[in-house]
Amino acid sequence: MSMNQNAPVKRGRMEEIGSDPAAADPLAVPESAAKRSKLDPEVEADEVELFPELDDEEERTPSRSPSPRVRSQRQCAEVAKKKIKTELRPGETRKEEAEKKVQSGESPQKEDRECSCERSDCPVSKTCTLHITETCMGARPDVGRLYTHLSKGEHVCKNCYEQIWTNGRPKFDHFMDWKGGWMNESRCAPSLKAFIQDQLLPFWVQCTACSKFRTLPMDASTPTSEFIESFNCGKCEEPESPSVAEASERSWITSVASAPLLHNSPALHYLAGDSYYYDELGMSPMNSEVEEKKEESSSRVFLAPFNLPHETSIAFSVRPDCMEHDETEAFPEFVVEPVPYLALRNLVFALWTKNPFKYLTPRECSSHLICRGLGRIWMLNELKRVFDFLNYKGIINYGILELPEKPVTQIGKSPPEVIIIGGGISGLAAARQLRGFGVEVKVLEAKARVGGRMQDDWSLGVAVGCGAQLVTGILNNPIALMCEQVGVGYRSLTEGCPLLDATTGKRVDAKVDRVVDEQFNAILDAHGHWRSSVKEPEDGSLYEHLTTVHEKLLNLGAVKWTEAEERVFQWNIGNTEFSCGVKLDQVSALYWDQNESLVQFAGAHALLTEGSSEIIKKLGEGTDIRLNSPVERIEWESNKKCSVVCKGGKRFSADRVIIAVPLAVLQKGSIQFAPALPKSKSTAIRGLGAGLIEKIAVRFPRRFWASLVKEDGSLDYFGHVPADGKKRGLFNMFYDFSSRGNSKNEHFVLMSYVCGDSVEIVNELSDVEVVKMFCDTLQDMFGEEKIPEPTGHVVTHWGRDPYIGMSYSYVRVGATGDNYDGIADTVGGRLHFAGECTNRFFPQTMTGAYLTGVREAGKLLENWRKKE
């Protein structure tokens, strides 16, 4: 997950959820994620367990260290299963074996003969919890050796115990049936105490009228969330059991003999199957509603909360059987034995994922927390801590939701006052997250509108995103989630990009396309090998490295490289320049794609067919936004409130400030800091480059490019192979933004861009002249096809905008991905920085920008909670 958002940003909010820094292949689920053998390794002498006082009758479960675990293959589990079975004499059933022991007078196993509780923290007078026989001893003083210890407050008398392990007694068959099922689905040997905990202890439910906990009858079925939400004990005048107070203590869990496991957890919706042992996730292997939990939900299309073995890891997914780095820091008491924490975290995360259209509350989570015994009371108390952690980290309840009237997570007696500089998506995201916690927020936006580089133009009849409009991977992507939350349309993009040669006016020969594609991929592979194999390689320009490797490969293979192939090669170079927003001779050869080694979003890329305006509008609703308020100075002296000075002299004060402005604005020094920013911060800002592309969209009276449409009617883009390599930044790709469907008012629109050497034409030429170049290029590409006169156009000028001045960041020669972290570092515990230039995991995207707003809100809240 990692949820760490504290500077330095070495692991982001959910940006590297599912990441494993020790793994050689960061996109592969670590082997320890899969179902492991039920035969656990021996306990090391120096290991410390969460349950140090387990009775000797139990087969001790070895403690779990936070280091990566080694997974055994599935056949090992089968071997373990057979081994457990062969503990009985060959050819005899469990019942026959037990009966022989009784008849022969042979002593039962350790777990059967232990009926003793002499723990100092348990009362001298014990009370039997089960009452499953008329001869139950009930409560007896000074007879501890006649009671089996389950937990502080839960014991079983000798007579009830015998009803379970003695052959022919009422509960023996139940125990044996359970034991067989447990062996198939658990990593631990099936003990009698585990059976009592999992199948016999009563359910504790809180009365909605008096708030007291009561036990349900012993024969009661597993309660549902609906039952728990409406439970009324009908005897509110009676006192609550003293055991409830004991189970509410955080240390109570150390007294349990067998860990309480959840029944019918919402996580089963995503984890039902053979991927994991349920008890390793804190869930009972004997769930009664596994099949019901497999039902589909609408969110499955765009959300996948858990990483599954043998599947590629996805950003924003977590390993359900492991704590993330941030979790171990926040909950160190669970590091050795994380199962209770995992049960709670997986429950909350699954509930949120199933219905991400409504603000999740602790109360809803509580009604789905179902387990037997006093363990439920302890887990309910811990649930609030886990919920609050996930909530302020932005792992749940993010996007565009109706905020609760009263914050469900408290951050202190007096919430901070916060000023956010910049009304782009990162600033608005931070503001909305903070408002959900009752924080007073003001957003100061320099321009007359919010949205920053997310701006739509509808003048051509369709949404043309002047800035961001593409979503790179919709699965778990918060942009796709927000589209679903507010009903904004998006369309998945198809694969395949036809290339048209401006020299021939025809489609590029498929053989030429394939040869160049293989060559370019070979260059990237060789380049990657150089980076990984050379010790301390010296950085240089990406262009120089790619072209050098290109020439060497051609010479080594004695390949005759044709002019047609060279033109397509230049198109690939131009496409790479578009991804960086600048000529490749300015881009770091070592770190140009530093984020690609990290876990990314999965699924198809998508186009926001209805633009991003509605998302921006909804994100900003209800927030105090001051437009036309360019900030000139931030004063952040120690022991004083921060003072933010706008152009014209107006001042605002706040406890914390989030700076969410483009990198170009920071580099120009448009905002002065008093005192000055640390040298490390200034160095980080200078190390990244401010890339720039400009977009041109043109509407035509007809779809003259229809010949490129596939048989299924789809066409999302096609490429322009330039006649001259110097023009590779001129209209490298054309995107078909035409209206789809049977619309009576159709609009045929193509959008392209200029970058690299060609980006300045939008400033050197008029918009009309730029559009003429656009149409002339299309004419060269389509040969004999007569290109009609355009009926409308849009040309962007981001480079001229003093409050933006760029498109997205890139890593300059000599810089590294650490520069992103350096810009993201909090200064003096008071100045926070957001924006795509602070996100090393997802730079250059609106997704990355949004996530930094959520990240900084979480960092601010976490630090304020500690201060309070």
Automatic annotation (TrEMBL):
SUPFAM superfamilies: FAD-linked reductases, C-terminal domain, FAD/NAD(P)-binding domain, Homeodomain-like. Coiled coil: none annotated. Its main location: nucleus. The keyword Metal-binding applies. Residues 309-407 form the SWIRM domain. Residues 42-59 have a biased composition (Acidic residues). It holds the Pfam family SWIRM. FAD binds at S426, E445, A446, V631. One of its GO terms (cellular component) is nucleus. Its cofactor is FAD. Residues 79-113 have a biased composition (Basic and acidic residues). Signal peptide: none annotated. Its EC number is 1.4.3.-. GO terms for molecular function: FAD-dependent H3K4me/H3K4me3 demethylase activity; primary methylamine oxidase activity; zinc ion binding. Substrate binds at Y753. It is found in: Nucleus. Keywords: FAD, Flavoprotein, Metal-binding, Oxidoreductase, Zinc, Zinc-finger. Residues 1-113 are annotated as: Disordered. Residues 198-244 form the CW-type domain. The keyword Zinc-finger applies. PANTHER family: FLAVIN MONOAMINE OXIDASE (PTHR10742), LYSINE-SPECIFIC HISTONE DEMETHYLASE 2 (PTHR10742:SF410). Belongs to the flavin monoamine oxidase family. This is Amine oxidase. It comes from Pristionchus mayeri. The lineage of its organism: Eukaryota, Metazoa, Ecdysozoa, Nematoda, Chromadorea.
